[in-house]
Design goal:
This protein is of the alpha+beta class. 29% of the residues lie in helices and 21% in strands. The structure holds tetradecanoyl-COA, adenosine-5'-triphosphate (ATP), 2-oxoglutaric acid, fe (ii) ion and magnesium ion (MG). The site of magnesium ion (MG) has 2 residues, from loops. Pfam families: PhyH.
Length: 336
């Protein structure tokens, strides 16, 4: 039996201690810090030879890890070109969802005069999907979710200049709200800045440590200027919780836990702020039924959109919509 999993390692240590219980009290006293080490290093990250102890501890404590300059300029420029081809409708990608800001009427890409604020589900676009398979990214992803890696959700976010109603904001949320699969700790998001991302153009805002909490109730925020379709926010989050603005340069990549509360501020610049992201889950994850949970509302919305777009009925489940999108990028697809 390999001892790569923290839980297995912990069990061995506990068994060992049971057999030597005479010395346990003094052992515990002396080695309290050792135990803190084991528990903190065990839950959210896996044994690996990439992360430094400081980086591991940082993710355990904060729920995110920022790696500077991870994706090359050449790769990002290629993703940008491909995105422009999609916006100009020079190529058509099966399954791709194109989203426009609820308030935007003018466009930087001419064909239909409305700016694309986000494309989702680019798993059938080989050029964009290269992002999800980049070995540099997967090496980090493996530290959080293990060697069997599924790309579950892909996005290229093109946050438009705010049209004056603050609709370019993304409310504070936990990505797990959208996911009917578990376990939660074997899911991670990689989010890469495609250009300088700062407070002016609406960088990510995170609540460090919020990944240690539970999944909160999400709903549309009551924003005067309106809010984008499916942009649910955490109903009540503690406004006193410290916030961190993640200012990033082109190629910088943040990995974060699906319970981390995060959002992004409004884009107060004339440029479209670009980022590319992928949510990964372990191939050993399993689907859950969200009936009777806080996720019922998003299940309902997703099913309505799928029904409208594809003319199908109740036979397509929330689980199906994820099972169809998921792509294996490394190792084995066991139960996903
Ligand atoms: C299959 C989908 C699964 C998604 C799972 C999400 C997973 C996320 C997981 C990861 C965590 C990520 C967390 C996240 O990222 S959460 C955000 C995720 N967002 C989405 O997934 C939304 C995807 N977008 C769409 O499905 C379409 O673009 C919609 C349905 C919005 C428009 O559809 P379509 O392109 O066909 O447009 P239409 O021209 O026929 O207009 C139809 C109606 O819609 C109105 N309208 C247009 N734009 C917007 C807007 N932006 N906000 C509000 N309303 C809008 C429009 O005025 C019209 O209304 P009316 O005039 O009839 O009243
Ligand atoms: N009422 C609200 N409910 C949920 N999330 C909110 C609400 N108001 C703002 N947010 C979110 O809080 C985060 C920070 O946005 P906000 O525009 O308030 O500040 P900022 O742009 O980060 O900071 P600043 O404007 O001071 O530089 C964003 O994710 C935004 O969408
Ligand atoms: O790029 C952003 O503004 C954040 C988007 C986000 O958190 C999401 O789509 O889940
Ligand atoms: Fe998110
Ligand atoms: Mg602001």
């Amino acid at each position: 039996q390999k001892m790569s999993r923290p839980s297995a390692r912990l069990r061995v240590i506990i068994n060992h201690l049971d057999r030597h219980s005479a010395g346990i009290v003094s052992f515990l006293n002396r080695k309290a810090s050792f135990f803190i080490f084991i528990f903190q290093f065990g839950r959210y990250t896996l044994d690996n030879d990439l992360l430094t102890p400081e980086q591991r501890l940082f993710y355990e404590e904060n729920g995110f890890l920022l790696i500077r300059n991870l994706v090359s300029t050449q790769d990002i420029d290629r993703f940008r070109k491909e995105f422009e081809r999609i916006c100009r409708q020079q190529i058509k990608v099966p399954g791709l969802v194109v989203m426009r800001d609820v308030a935007i009427a003018k466009s930087e890409f001419v064909p239909d005069q409305r700016a694309v604020s986000k494309v989702q589900d680019f798993q059938e676009d080989p050029e964009l999907f290269r992002y999800c398979s980049l070995p540099k990214i997967l090496k980090y992803v493996e530290c959080f979710i293990g060697p069997n890696i599924m790309a579950m959700h892909t996005m290229l976010i093109n946050k438009p200049p705010d049209a004056g109603k603050k609709t370019s904001r993304h409310p504070m949320h936990q990505d797990l709200h959208y996911f009917p699969f578990r376990p939660v700790d074997r899911i991670v998001c990689a989010w890469t800045a495609m250009e300088t991302v700062n407070r002016q153009n609406g960088c990510l805002v995170v609540l460090p440590g919020s990944h240690k909490g539970t999944l909160q109730e999400h709903d549309y925020p009551e924003w005067e200027g309106g809010v984008n379709k499916m942009y649910h926010g955490v109903r009540d989050y503690d406004p006193e919780h410290p916030r961190v603005h993640l200012e990033m340069e082109k190629g910088d990549t943040v990995f974060f836990h699906p319970l981390l509360i995060h959002g992004s501020g409004m884009n107060q610049t004339p440029g479209f702020r670009k980022a590319i992201s992928c949510h990964y889950a372990s191939g050993d994850c399993y689907y859950i039924d969200v009936k009777g949970t806080t996720q019922e509302n998003i299940e309902k919305e997703v099913k309505e959109i799928v029904a409208r777009r594809h003319g199908v009925g109740d036979e397509v489940t929330f689980k199906d919509t994820w099972e169809i999108r998921g792509r294996l990028v490394q190792g084995e697809r066991i139960s996903m």
